[in-house]
From TrEMBL, chain B:
<dbReference type="InterPro" id="IPR036927">
    <property type="entry name" value="Cyt_c_oxase-like_su1_sf"/>
</dbReference>
<keyword id="KW-0349">Heme</keyword>
<keyword id="KW-1133">Transmembrane helix</keyword>
<dbReference type="GO" id="GO:0022904">
    <property type="term" value="P:respiratory electron transport chain"/>
</dbReference>
<feature type="transmembrane region" description="Helical">
    <location>
        <begin position="41"/>
        <end position="63"/>
    </location>
</feature>
<dbReference type="GO" id="GO:0009060">
    <property type="term" value="P:aerobic respiration"/>
</dbReference>
<keyword id="KW-0479">Metal-binding</keyword>
<feature type="domain" description="Cytochrome oxidase subunit I profile">
    <location>
        <begin position="24"/>
        <end position="593"/>
    </location>
</feature>
<keyword id="KW-0812">Transmembrane</keyword>
<keyword id="KW-0813">Transport</keyword>
<feature type="transmembrane region" description="Helical">
    <location>
        <begin position="460"/>
        <end position="488"/>
    </location>
</feature>
<feature type="transmembrane region" description="Helical">
    <location>
        <begin position="351"/>
        <end position="372"/>
    </location>
</feature>
<keyword id="KW-0408">Iron</keyword>
<feature type="transmembrane region" description="Helical">
    <location>
        <begin position="384"/>
        <end position="409"/>
    </location>
</feature>
<feature type="transmembrane region" description="Helical">
    <location>
        <begin position="225"/>
        <end position="253"/>
    </location>
</feature>
<dbReference type="GO" id="GO:0004129">
    <property type="term" value="F:cytochrome-c oxidase activity"/>
</dbReference>
<feature type="transmembrane region" description="Helical">
    <location>
        <begin position="318"/>
        <end position="339"/>
    </location>
</feature>
Length: 339, 627
């Protein structure tokens, strides 16, 4: 049925094109306009450029203002406030250039459309102008880059000592989360140790791994630095926490990192948005296969006190599954049991 | 016109002696005539554009109408439509991948450079053909092989490559990760190898031809900007494509011979692979070392074509001819040192990120200069809106819109949020995709009379332009909003996340706009093929243009000029020169013939020119007497 309809549609379209074409060729031959340099269409096209400018201009402003709250994601990290600011400064600068150049680009066709009586101005060059419009964009861009560079340097600087260390590991098609535990140091891992019970491939013979624990949700404290240690087990993934303005690829064989300070708890954000269902989310932004669009993880930002309480309630990998400690040296085992 | 007298002080009989006796095969298939090879590239490029466009309609259906029953596509897609009538998610990724590969390489590289570098270089510099007609023919046939292989890969059981057009390993290296990384990826790699060979053969030819075969008087400072653009494009291609070949070769080793260039510490399918020590980021560096220059390989020819078309139809010299050349040179050089701006959050050293941020924003400067120069060319012109002119103005608009968003993405701090979202999709579709596409279309409308001796219908061209111009903005402009909202690229659907669970209406709008825009291209196709056979007969110089190609006969044979190759006496942009009777003076008109319009420094050159002409006529007389 669909096929038939499409075929009819295409046929109709083709015959319309054909008829329009024939009719207007005949008309233009009759009028002799195929011999003129510029026909009446020249004027129509010139006017259409102005109409296009007005139409799309109005549409753009209307939609940008109307939808502002929809596309402007709320921000919930310290550096995110800064990068957002850079974004909107850049938007202002480029917006002005965008408008000016487009007004000129579409007004000129109207203003300077062909007239047989007029001759175009022979104006091949002007070095002064060229220099001006090389230097001015250069200076403006330099300003933008330098502010961007300062923000970038801060964001990518080493994490503060006391940052809460959390490992996020991507695999097809989910994220697994490991907390560093009381010592705030993640234990070693080796991908060859990966198994159904030990999805991170944690090396439990490393003392640092004994207090490491898993969590289905990324719980983090508000106002304190958090360090994501990011890696992947199979192919590339990318950790994207849109409200935190955070993104970093997860690369097999090459651990990466990103640290930040969350500024609003989930509860606060729910209130602010008037949406009791709201959650901070992590998505994957590096194509990784069939389930790429489903790698969701929730981030829960809580008050520092609530965070400490939550931490103390968590059970380590080994407590959850004592079999993991099998075959370990006895002193390590002892340590694990005391925990 | 004064043109003809200089161009054809005739030795026509001289040429008849070695006129080729072409049969069908040597004329249309294994042709070594640059004009025919250009047309072969064009038709193949159009074929690929239809395929690539059609694929995008398929995945736009999924994004705009996720609930839609696609059962009617089963005859075409077979098992890729599941029982409930939905598109398979893996196949969705394959569609995206093939769309990108086809558009970037097969349409906008081969279809654009292949067509116009081939067709225009000899015609505009005054040469009989390319330096090596045979290599040129090989270039097309390598491309053809590549096309056949890529096309076949669309139909194999496990589907074509599906790791994105950048085919990052490990995804592209491991069959366990995605079915498209099996045979589909193998075919992709083979096809791209042929493609690279084709590009290199073509590029070497373009460079050699421009350097060595320019006609008398055609100095580099008198080359049309089209030729400058094709020349620099070829240089970029020659230097960057081999690096893609290296990247692909190492990937082949990793896939088939157990090496670990890109693979390390991988546990997949319940099994730990033995590879250690490789780096997926290495691949990204190699890929983008081609990948970024590639965007200029695609864009520069379009800008070259635009310069020519805008100057001709403004009846004004292009403003800042030298500045345009310097900008293009700057872009050429800088395009090699900005690649890592695609990798700010790939995990590479953030210090590198800083360096590449500075370099990237430098490249925006020559781009801006070009835009200002186009605007000034339009200023106080006498504008004739041929379809080619409309598409050129459209190109400038896209170049501005897409170029400005590059300033966001080139700023690594801002790119953290925008990387791999729809903002990037909007950016490169405007600045690279649509701008280059408009360059291609402008070129076809402008040089159709030279290619086929007939005119395309202007009115259909106008309709085509306005539908496409509005359509492209309706498709890609909304993507900025979606991107700022954080919607990731290459998502089969956005319903799994709360933050992307909106804008279904906007996505539907985009999809409808895409379908309309795609359909509008059939107006062009009709116009193109119908005019080829039935269009109005072209005149010798329908746009009253200055460049050399319009001094050839309406249907130039192999060798282009029946007689002597014309000599060039001036730059190609003497439009509306004060004092001149007409509003254009072709390059073949000597300065000595136009004392009324010469500028002071040109008046000085007249003496020199006289000497050359005297010498030339002596040679001519000598030649004549030999017969
Ligand atoms: C004004 C100058 C430009 C700047 C500053 C710029 C900057 C960038 C940056 C930083 C990215 C990476 C964004 C990301 O993935 O997060 C990007 C992506 C891209 N740009 Fe540009 N760009 C400019 C002009 C161009 C031009 C002229 C073209 C094409 C002719 C182009 C084509 C592309 C393409 C194809 C991508 C997407 C690659 C991918 O992720 O698959 N850009 N641009
Ligand atoms: Cu993914
Ligand atoms: Cu780039």
């Amino acid at each position: 049925m669909y096929g038939f309809l499409i075929a009819v549609g295409v046929l109709l379209l083709l015959s319309i094109i054909w008829m329009v074409y024939r009719i207007q060729t005949l008309v233009s031959v009759v009028k002799g306009s195929d011999k003129k340099i510029a026909t009446g269409s020249n004027k129509i096209n010139a006017i259409l450029f102005v109409l296009f400018l007005l139409g799309t201009g109005i549409l753009m402003f209307w939609y940008s203002i109307k939808e502002f709250d929809n596309y402007q994601l709320p921000v919930a990290s310290e550096h995110g406030v800064i990068t957002d600011q850079l974004f909107w400064i850049t938007m202002a600068v480029t917006g002005v250039v965008f408008l000016i150049t487009h007004v000129l680009l579409f007004i000129f066709p109207y203003k300077y459309q062909y007239k047989e009586s007029r001759k175009a101005t022979f104006y091949p060059d002007n070095n002064k102008l060229e220099i001006i419009w090389t230097v001015v964009p250069g200076v403006v861009l330099a300003g933008l880059v330098i502010s961007g560079w300062m923000a970038w340097s801060d964001i990518t600087a080493p994490a503060p000592e006391k940052a809460h260390v959390i490992e996020i590991m991507g695999y097809q098609f989910a994220w697994d989360v490991r907390y560093a535990g009381k010592d705030n140091v993640l234990g070693d891992y080796d991908y060859r140790l990966t198994s159904a019970q030990n999805s991170h491939g944690v090396d439990f013979s490393d003392k640092n791994s004994i207090d490491d624990f898993p969590s289905p949700v990324v719980v983090i404290p508000k106002g304190e630095p958090v360090l994501f240690k990011i890696r992947a087990r199979d192919v590339l993934h990318s950790v994207f926490a849109p409200h935190m303005r955070l993104k970093m690829d997860a690369v097999p064989g090459m651990p990466t990192r990103f640290w930040f300070v969350p500024t609003k708890t989930t509860a606060e954000m729910r209130e602010e948005l008037g949406n009791p269902e709201f959650n901070y989310e992590i998505a994957c932004t590096e194509i990784c296969g069939r389930g790429h669009n489903g790698m969701r993880k929730v981030i829960e930002v809580v008050e520092p006190a609530a965070y400490q309480k939550w931490l103390s309630e968590q059970k380590s990998f080994i407590q959850n599954n004592p079999a993991l400690a099998k075959g370990l040296e006895s002193d390590v085992k002892e340590l694990a049991e005391i925990q | 016109m004064a043109t003809a007298s200089v161009a054809t002080h005739d030795t026509a009989h001289d040429h008849h002696d070695h006129e080729h006796h072409d049969n069908f095969v040597t004329k249309y298939i294994f042709s070594t005539d640059h004009k025919m090879i250009g047309k072969q590239f064009l038709v193949t490029g159009i074929f690929w554009a239809i395929i690539g466009g059609f694929l995008s309609i398929l995945f736009r259906l999924q994004l705009g109408f996720p609930e839609m029953n696609l059962e009617f596509l089963r005859p075409l897609l077979g098992g890729w439509i599941d029982e409930s009538g939905a598109l398979d998610p893996t196949f969705y990724l394959a569609l995206v991948t093939m769309h990108g590969t086809i558009m970037v390489f097969f349409v906008l590289t081969a279809g654009l450079s292949g067509t116009f570098s081939n067709f225009l270089i000899p015609l505009q510099i005054g040469a009989r053909d390319m330096a090596s007609g045979f290599m040129n023919m090989l270039s097309y046939w390598f491309f053809f092989m590549s096309s056949v292989i890529m096309f076949i890969s669309l139909f194999i059981k496990t589907g074509p490559a599906g790791g994105g057009w950048v085919v990052y390993p490990p995804l592209s290296a491991l069959e366990q990760a995605i079915p498209g990384s099996g045979l589909g990826m193998t075919l992709w790699l083979i096809a791209m190898t042929f493609f690279i060979a084709s590009s290199l053969l073509g590029g070497i030819n373009y460079i050699t031809t421009v350097i060595n075969l320019r006609t008398k008087g055609m100095s580099f400072s008198r080359l049309p900007l089209t030729i400058w653009a094709f020349f620099l494009t070829a240089v970029i291609g020659l230097l960057s494509f081999p690096v893609l070949f290296a990247a692909a070769l190492l990937l082949v080793f990793d896939r088939s011979f157990g090496t670990s260039f890109y693979l390390s510490d991988i546990y997949i399918g319940g099994e730990a692979l033995p590879n250690t020590g490789g780096s997926p980021v290495l691949y990204q560096h190699l890929f983008w070392f081609l990948g970024h220059p590639e965007v200029y390989i695609v864009l520069l020819p379009a800008l070259g074509i635009t310069s020519e078309v805008i100057a001709t139809n403004s009846r004004k010299p292009i403003f800042g001819y030298k500045a345009m050349i310097i900008s293009m040179l700057g872009i050429t050089i800088l395009s090699f040192i900005v690649w890592a701006h695609h990798m700010f959050v790939s995990g590479m050293n953030p210090f590198l990120g800083s360096i590449f941020m500075f370099l990237t924003l430098i490249i925006a400067v020559p781009s801006a200069v070009k835009v200002f120069n186009y605007l000034t060319t339009l200023w106080r012109g006498n504008l004739i809106f041929t379809p080619a002119m409309l598409f050129s103005i459209g190109l400038v608009s896209f170049f501005i819109s897409g170029g400005l968003t590059g300033i966001f993405l080139g700023n690594s701090a801002i790119d953290i949020q925008l990387h791999d979202t729809y903002f990037v999709v909007a950016h490169f579709h405007l600045v690279m995709g649509s701008a280059s596409f408009f360059g291609l279309l402008a070129g076809v409308y402008h040089w159709f009379p030279k290619m086929f001796g007939r005119m395309m219908d202007a009115r259909l061209g106008y309709i085509h332009f306005w539908l496409t111009f509005v359509g492209v903005y309706m498709v890609f402009f909304p993507m900025h909003y979606i991107g700022i909202a954080g919607f990731p690229r290459r998502y089969y659907s956005w319903t799994n996340f709360e933050f992307t669970n909106m804008y279904t209406d906007l996505n539907m709008f985009v999809s409808v706009a895409a379908i309309i825009t795609f359909s509008a291209q059939f107006i062009f196709l009709f116009n193109f093929f119908y005019s080829m056979y039935r269009g109005r007969k072209a005149t010798l110089n329908p746009w009253r243009s200055n460049t050399l190609e319009w001094t050839t006969p309406i249907n130039p044979g192999h060798g282009n000029w029946p007689g002597e190759i014309p000599t060039v006496y001036r730059w190609p942009y003497d439009y509306s020169k004060p004092g001149a009777p007409e509003d254009f003076i072709p390059q073949t008109v000597p300065l000595s013939a136009t004392p009324e319009s010469n500028l002071p420094h040109e008046q000085e050159q007249v003496k020199l020119e006289m000497e050359i002409m005297k010498e030339e006529s002596e040679v001519l007389v000598a030649n004549e007497s030999k017969h």
